[in-house]
Amino acid sequence: MIATVLAASRDPARERRIGFACAFAILFVWTGFILASRAGARGVLTPWDLAGLRFGVALVALMPLVLRGVLRRIALWRILVMGATAGLGFALFAYNAFALAPAAHGAVLLPGALPFVTALLAWSWLGEAPTARRAVSLAVVAFGIALLAGAEFFATPGAWRGDILFFIATSSYAVFIVLVQRWRITAIEATAAVAVGAAPFYLPVWWLALPSAMAEAAWQEVVFQGVYQGLVAMVLASLLYTRALVALGSTTVSLFTAVVPALAALAAWPVLGEPLGLGALAGVLLVTGGMILGVRAGRVDVPLARP
Question: Among candidates 15, 253, 216, which has minimal Cα distance to 114?
Answer without folding.
Answer: 253
